[in-house]
Every structure is written in structure tokens, then in C-alpha cells.
Write a structure and sequence with these properties.
The complex is a heterodimer of chains A (330) and B (336). Chain A is of the alpha/beta class and 330 residues long. Chain A is built from 12 helices and 12 strands. Chain B has 2 domains: 182 residues, P-loop containing nucleotide triphosphate hydrolases (Rossmann fold); 68 residues, no CATH class. Chain B contains 13 helices and 12 strands. The chains are: A alpha/beta (330), B alpha/beta (336). The interface between A and B is large, with 48 and 47 residues.
């Protein structure tokens, strides 16, 4: 792993102000992402997992400056990109791309596939109009679609094919980094595997770096180099794939992993699950101290009052938990 | 757990065929499905979107949307054909003897009714309970599905509950009248994994307590591995394989089942190793190819597969395991 990260995320915070009540008479703050720190290294796949509403997608959007960060820094090529306005951000947009979850709503229904894929190339002036068809053909070939698809419209394509188009569009201006925001969640099981393979092939071919946002831990375990676990807007744990899946330290990570069903009836029969009680608290009023303490089986008094520190307990293994801190210190 | 002894099944679906009205004329979307559920048995119905798994179950309680009609077949429930029942008889079955849990709790609960009142409705209707008794039972039911503080919760409206809570209310409604059969249509798809684990454990627990039969519809093979006794795999409106759960995972026989199982990432996989995938996409409902519906995507397909439709036949030597595939059946015979 290279020493210098491709992207450095420092104390990233994103709060949304929402209006509540029938007439929007009450204001409230959603603490979507709170003080998140991590590095993304060139060529790796870093996954963010967590339950709905934990802020993993918001982290992805804020990191790309698609949503204005409330505070914090995202350093890319020596520049804090979240402080840039849209105009100054534009040269960086080329390098930083995103693939969204729903391939049905992210493609303009009135544009042909060729126009969809060609638009970013023309916008960033990476080719002339004359060179465009050839570029589009090559991009479609990269994602396993025949050239004749360029003249089709999105409604003529299946979900898996549309997701391939979305990936081709993200690849169009030779990015370094792609955020895959639940990019395979909306697809059928048999098609998911095709897209995972495609993403892995493209990573190898172009040396891409992925931030993979997902809730399916079986998939995350398959493709990631490192995995970050989020809970209610904060990172609970971040470690290499091996560390996280064989030695999870945070009680939330443990519960999350034990809840994932395995496709093995024998194993499932004998398996001990650690079932969490209760629901995720509202991000409008996150609990004080450690945000997981309301559901944590080993919560102590300290957890209810003090926010646990984000610490590196062994090389590359970060965790925020008072109990783990006590164990490793003593 | 062992499969219950073979007797007359509680639910016996034979040759169920469902048709949809399209602009190009009628198209078959469920083609001659056979499915049995024994007393106390839990059956998983697995398939991808558009394979007809939800429509099959909806047709049993005659809740199919307009333009979609049952064209043929029978569905005997405790000896009576659900598809031929009068409306008044059917009303006794719906929510009474057969409980239903729908996928999306946000659209299936009445948003302007308190959840307590929604829970009481079937009790008053099917069990002739007084309002006061029904109210007490509603609280019991909410406690049963693990909702804390049920006395306060019964006065809540659906929007005041979280997704997991709403799904529990749906399950409580499905269970309200102690049904003999619970049909759960992707009850955990909209939920997070930790909540999903809670719901699965809950259903396992209740099944034992109430000796109820369960049909669990899902697209997630991993999820049902530890939950069901038997699995029926659906593809494009037909059952392609049907086997006890251990048998299915140990000896998947239909190329589609094999492909599905192989495409799930496993614990033992190397990082970033290639997943085996099934090429192509499932046919759109109503655009089924001639012959075996899986043939266009099947690596083993031969000329007969494109001509004739294979029927579900027993896998020799493995009781209760049936598969609809010409090639697999021939390979089994050659091996024997």
C-alpha cells in the first residue's frame, strides 16, 4: 500500500437542516455524518457499510462535493476539494466519478446510450465530435455492451445493462476514483455477480480506486481491501478485510456480522447469533456519548457520557469503543 | 429439525396458471406451478424479480390485480379449492386461516388508522371478539412480536413507527387469528440485516409455538438456509427445482439453482476472485421463450431444451428432490 493516500478525509461533518411539523414550523438538524476520518489509497477498494440512515451515502456525496460539507476537509491532489466552488471543482470532477444505486432513474430517458456516455467526454473536451463514436464504442466494449447499443434508449435495456451504461459513463473521462453508491443493490442476484466481476475487471485494467458503499456484507467481504463500519453518522471501526471479518472489535461490527445469513443450512442451524435489541435511534437526536450505547450489550456508564476516541489499536485497525480501549490498554 | 411426517398436505397447488392481459393479447406469466406445504412445514419460494413468486401467492387468496387472472389449476387448502370458493367462504380464509405478511409495510398499513385498531379488525371479524377483548389480544400480539411498551404503542399511527416496527406490526396482523398457514412475501427485504435477523428468529420461534405452516417468499437463498424445511426454486413462472433445504444446498441439480448458489459470495472465497455468474437476464414476464424458459441462458442447453418444456421429475435416490431439466435428468441416469 502506498504511503501517501489518494484521498484524505479529515473530520468530515455533514449536518442537514430540515423543517418539521405540518407547516414546517419547527427546525431540526439531522446529524448525518459526524467527524469522520479515513484515508483512501490508490488502487484499493474501500467499502463503507452500515444500516440505512447511518450516513454512508452522505459520506460518499459529501466527499465528492456533491453536497456541501458542514466542516472538515477532503484532500485530493493537495487541494481541499470540499471548500471549492462548482467552477473550481470542475477540473477535479473528471477524476472523481460516481455510480448510483438505481439504474432506472439515473439515465436520462430522452438521451440515447451513445449520448449519455459521450456527454462527459465532450464536456471535458477529451475528444472532438468526430472522434466521439469510436470512443463511445470502446467504452461500451469495456463494460461488455455491443456498439449497436449506442443508438438505443434506456427503456430498451434491462437493469443490468443500464448499470453497465452508468459504469461506462463514469469511466468516460478516465477517472482515478469512483464512488459506487449501492451500485449493485437494485439488481437481481444472478446479474449482481456479473456487475461485481465487471467492476473488478475494470479496476485491474485501469488501476481504479473504489469507495464501495453497500449494505450487503457478503459482497463487501468479497471485493474489499479495507472496510469501514458506520453507525449513526460515525465510523465505528475501520480495518483490512481480514482484520474486520476475522477479528471484529466493535460490538456493533460483531452484531452486524453475526446477522448476515450464510448460504449453508448446516452452518445456519448451529450458528449463534448475537441479536441486537431495539431500533437505530433517530439521527435527529442521536444519543450522547457513544451513539451505539442504547443497543450495545456491553455498554458502561462512560459510554453514555463520553464520545469514544477514534484509535488505531493495531496497524491499520481503527476502532472507536471505550470497552476495546480498556482491554487494549490493560 | 426434521421434516414433518408425510400426510395430506395443508396446501396443495396443482397446475396453477396465471395470465396477464397485454396490448398484444394474453400472456402467460405463471405456467402450471405445483407446490405443496405440509402441516407445520416451512417452505421457501425462491426466485428473481418477475418470476411470478408473489403473484402465485396472491392468487391463492384471490388478490390478483386487475388484468391478471388465474387461467387454470387448483389450490386445495385443507381439502377446499381456494380458487373456486365463494366470496363469503374466502373471507373466512383471508386473514383467518391464512395469514399474509406483505413486503412493504409502508403501503400495506392504513396510514389514518391507529395500529391497535388495525390489529383488532380481523379479531372482531373472524373471532367475534368484543372490542375490549380484541384490544387485549392486540397488546398480546404486539408483545409477541417483540414491540416494547405495547400498551402505549397500540394508539400509534403507522408513520410514528420505524420500518422494523411496522414490519413487526404486519407480522402481528398476519398472526392475529392463529392462522394455519402464514404466507410471508419478502417480509424482510426492506429491512436492515440486524432487524432482519430479529424478524427471522421471531418467525422461527412463533412457528414452533403455534405449529403453523409458513411459506416464505424471497430472492435471498442465504436468508432461508437456516429457516425453511424445503425450497421451491422458481424461474420465469415455473418451478425448476424442489428439494429439502439441506439437499438443495448440498446437491443443487438444476443449472439455474447451481448458478444462483455459485453467484453468492462465500466466506471461503479469495478476495476479488471472480464470481461465477449467469449470463444474460431473466425473460420479461410474458415473453417466455419456447421450450425450457432457462435454455437461452443455460450453458448446458441442448436442442431438445429449446423445443420442449421439461417437467418436474424426481431425482432418483434422493427422496423429495425434484428437478425440471432434460440434461440434469439424463446425467443422473448415466451416473446411476
Amino acid at each position: 500500500m502506498a504511503a501517501e493516500p489518494l484521498i484524505k478525509v479529515e473530520n468530515l461533518v455533514k449536518h442537514f437542516v430540515v423543517r418539521l411539523g405540518a407547516f414546517g414550523e419547527r427546525g431540526a438538524t439531522v446529524y448525518a455524518v459526524d467527524d469522520v476520518n479515513f484515508d483512501i489509497f490508490a488502487g484499493e477498494t474501500l467499502s463503507l457499510v452500515g444500516e440505512s440512515g447511518c450516513g454512508k451515502s452522505t459520506t460518499g456525496f459529501t466527499l465528492l462535493n456533491l453536497q456541501k460539507a458542514t466542516s472538515g476537509k477532503v484532500i485530493f491532489q493537495g487541494e481541499n476539494i470540499v471548500s471549492l466552488n462548482e467552477k473550481r471543482m470542475r477540473p477535479y470532477r473528471r477524476e472523481l466519478q460516481i455510480v448510483f444505486q438505481d439504474p432506472y432513474s439515473t439515465l436520462n430517458p430522452r438521451m440515447t446510450i451513445g449520448e449519455v456516455v459521450g456527454e462527459p467526454i465532450l464536456f471535458h473536451k477529451l475528444a472532438t465530435k468526430a472522434e466521439l463514436p469510436e470512443k463511445v464504442t470502446r467504452l461500451l466494449a469495456d463494460v461488455g455492451l455491443p456498439a449497436r447499443f449506442a443508438s438505443r434508449y434506456p427503456h430498451e435495456l434491462s437493469g443490468g445493462q443500464r448499470q453497465r451504461v452508468a459504469i461506462a459513463r463514469a469511466l468516460a473521462c478516465q477517472p482515478k476514483f469512483i464512488v459506487c453508491d449501492e451500485a449493485i443493490s437494485a439488481l437481481d442476484v444472478s446479474v449482481q455477480a456479473q456487475i461485481i466481476n465487471l467492476l473488478l475487471d475494470l479496476q485491474e485494467k485501469y488501476g481504479l480506486t473504489y469507495l464501495f458503499i453497500a449494505h450487503d456484507l457478503a459482497v463487501v467481504r468479497h471485493i474489499s481491501d479495507r472496510v469501514g463500519v458506520m453507525y449513526l453518522g460515525r465510523l465505528a471501526e475501520l480495518a483490512t478485510r481480514e482484520q474486520l471479518f476475522s477479528n471484529p472489535l466493535h460490538p456493533y461490527t460483531r452484531a452486524l456480522l453475526s446477522a448476515v445469513p450464510e448460504a449453508d443450512p448446516e452452518l445456519e442451524k448451529t450458528r449463534q447469533r448475537q441479536i441486537l435489541v431495539g431500533d437505530v435511534p433517530s439521527p435527529l437526536a442521536p444519543p450522547a456519548g457513544c451513539r451505539f450505547h442504547t443497543r450495545c450489550p456491553i455498554a458502561m456508564d462512560k459510554c453514555r457520557a463520553v464520545v469514544p476516541e477514534w484509535r488505531e489499536v493495531e496497524t491499520g485497525h481503527h476502532v472507536a469503543c471505550h470497552a476495546v480501549e480498556m482491554e487494549t490498554a490493560g | 429439525m426434521t421434516a414433518p411426517e408425510i400426510q395430506k398436505p395443508l396446501l396443495d397447488v396443482r397446475g396453477l396458471t396465471i395470465e396477464i392481459e397485454t396490448r398484444r393479447g394474453p400472456a402467460i406469466i405463471v405456467d402450471g406451478i405445483n407446490l405443496t406445504v405440509g402441516k407445520g412445514e416451512t417452505v421457501g419460494v425462491v426466485g428473481e424479480s418477475g418470476c411470478g413468486k408473489s403473484l402465485t401467492m396472491l392468487s391463492l387468496v384471490r388478490l390478483l390485480p386487475n388484468k391478471i387472472k388465474v387461467k387454470g389449476g387448483t389450490a386445495e387448502f385443507a381439502g377446499r379449492d381456494l380458487l373456486k370458493m365463494s366470496k363469503s367462504e374466502l373471507r373466512q380464509v383471508r386473514g383467518g386461516k391464512i395469514g399474509f405478511v406483505f413486503q412493504d409495510p409502508m403501503t400495506s398499513l392504513n396510514p389514518v388508522m391507529r395500529i391497535g385498531d388495525q390489529l383488532c379488525e380481523p379479531l372482531i371479524y373472524h373471532r367475534n371478539m368484543s372490542k375490549a377483548d380484541a384490544g387485549k389480544r392486540a397488546i398480546e400480539l404486539l408483545r409477541l412480536v417483540g414491540i416494547p411498551g405495547p400498551e402505549q404503542r397500540i394508539t400509534a399511527y403507522p408513520h410514528e413507527l420505524s420500518g422494523g416496527m411496522r414490519q413487526r406490526v404486519m407480522i402481528a396482523m398476519g398472526l392475529a387469528c392463529d392462522p394455519e398457514l402464514l404466507i410471508a412475501d419478502e417480509p424482510t427485504t426492506a429491512l436492515d440485516v440486524t432487524i432482519q435477523a430479529q424478524i427471522v428468529d421471531l418467525v422461527k420461534d412463533l412457528r414452533k409455538k403455534l405449529n403453523m405452516s409458513v411459506v416464505w417468499i424471497t430472492h435471498d437463498l442465504a436468508l432461508i438456509a437456516g429457516l425453511v424445511d424445503r425450497v421451491a426454486v422458481l424461474y420465469a413462472g415455473t418451478v425448476v427445482e424442489d428439494a429439502p433445504v439441506g439437499e438443495l444446498f448440498a446437491r443443487p441439480t438444476h443449472p439455474y439453482t447451481r448458478g444462483l448458489l455459485a453467484s453468492i459470495p462465500k466466506l471461503s472465497d479469495e478476495r476479488a476472485s471472480r464470481l461465477s455468474s449467469i449470463g444474460g437476464t431473466p425473460p420479461e414476464p410474458g415473453r417466455r421463450p419456447k421450450g425450457c424458459p432457462f435454455a437461452p441462458r443455460c450453458a448446458l442447453a441442448e436442442s431438445i431444451c429449446h423445443e420442449r418444456v421439461p417437467v418436474l421429475e424426481p431425482v432418483a435416490g434422493h427422496s423429495g428432490h425434484r428437478v425440471a431439466c432434460f440434461v440434469a435428468q439424463r446425467q443422473l441416469k448415466e451416473a446411476a
